[in-house]
Design a protein that fits this description.
The protein is an all-alpha fold and 249 residues long. It has 10 helices and 2 strands, in the order ααββαααααααα. The chain has a two-stranded antiparallel ribbon.
Length: 249
C-alpha cells in the first residue's frame, strides 16, 4: 500500500508539472464546451437545452481523451522508452504500478468532470446532477471501461511514433458518430448502426439518463451491460497482449 500511494502521488504530480498534459486533460475540454455552447447552446438537442446536451457530450469527450487516448499513448511511450522494463527490476511490483496509473487516470477524469459540470452551471445555467451517487458511479464505470480498452490497445501498437495516429484514428470518429456533439438521429442509417455498437454511445446515454431523465444507474442495465462488456473485452485483450518490454527491431 505504501508503494502504491507513493506511485499514485507521483502519477498525479505529472498533471501539475506537465503543462501540455494539464492543457489537454483539463483546459481543452472546457474550451471546446464553451465554444460549442455559445455557438448553439440555446437550441434544443435530444429534448433538452443544447448546452445541457453538450455538457454530457463534453464528459464523453473527457472520458475518451483521458481514460482511453491519453492512457494508451503514455503507456506505449513508457514501454518503448524502456521505462516499464526498468520498473520490473525495482521493488515496485508491476501490478501495483499499473493499478496506480489506472487510478490516477480515473481521478484525473473525475476532477475534469467536476470542472465540466461547474462550467456548465456557471456559463449556461445547467442544473447540478440530482442523483449524485448514480452520476459518480456512471463516470467511474465509463472511465474503467475505457481505461481497460486503452491498456488493451497498447498491445496492438508497436511503436511510440504511431501511438497518436492509431489512437486519434479511433477516438475522433467515435466522438462524432456516438453523438458527443450532435444528435445521432440526424446521421445516416449506416452511421447510426455503427453508433449502436460503440461504447461511447452507451456512456453518453447512461450519463444523460441519470442527469436529465431522472434515472438511477440501476435503471439502465442495458447501458451498463454494454460498457461492462467493452471493458471486459479490453481487459482480456490486455491480459493476452500487454507487454512490459519495447518492441524488437
Amino acid at each position: 500500500m505504501t508503494l502504491f500511494l507513493h506511485e499514485l502521488r507521483y502519477e498525479m504530480r505529472l498533471y501539475s508539472r506537465s503543462r501540455e498534459l494539464a492543457f489537454f486533460t483539463f483546459l481543452l475540454p472546457m474550451i471546446l464546451f464553451l465554444l460549442l455552447g455559445f455557438a448553439y447552446g440555446d437550441e434544443e438537442l435530444q429534448g433538452v437545452k443544447g448546452s445541457d446536451y453538450l455538457m454530457i457530450g463534453t464528459l464523453g469527450y473527457g472520458v475518451v481523451a483521458t481514460a482511453f487516448a491519453g492512457l494508451t499513448i503514455v503507456i506505449v511511450i513508457r514501454r518503448e522508452e524502456g521505462i516499464l522494463k526498468r520498473l520490473r527490476s525495482t521493488p515496485l511490483p508491476a501490478p501495483t504500478y499499473l493499478i496506480a496509473v489506472l487510478v490516477a487516470t480515473m481521478v484525473a477524469f473525475l476532477v475534469q468532470a467536476v470542472v465540466i459540470v461547474a462550467v456548465g452551471m456557471v456559463a449556461f445555467g445547467a442544473s447540478f446532477p440530482s442523483h449524485l451517487f448514480s452520476f459518480v458511479l456512471s463516470l467511474i464505470l465509463g472511465a474503467a471501461a475505457f481505461a481497460a480498452l486503452g491498456v488493451g490497445l497498447t498491445g496492438a501498437i508497436k511503436r511510440a511514433e504511431g501511438a497518436s495516429a492509431v489512437v486519434n484514428a479511433i477516438y475522433f470518429p467515435m466522438l462524432f458518430i456516438s453523438g458527443a456533439f450532435f444528435e445521432r438521429d440526424t446521421f445516416p442509417e449506416f452511421l447510426q448502426a455503427v453508433a449502436a455498437v460503440l461504447p461511447l454511445t452507451y456512456f453518453i446515454d447512461l450519463v444523460f439518463g441519470v442527469v436529465y431523465e431522472g434515472d438511477q444507474i440501476w435503471d439502465l442495465p442495458g447501458d451498463i451491460a454494454v460498457l461492462a462488456a467493452w471493458g471486459l473485452a479490453g481487459a482480456l485483450f490486455a491480459a493476452r497482449r500487454f507487454r512490459w518490454t519495447p518492441s524488437e527491431g
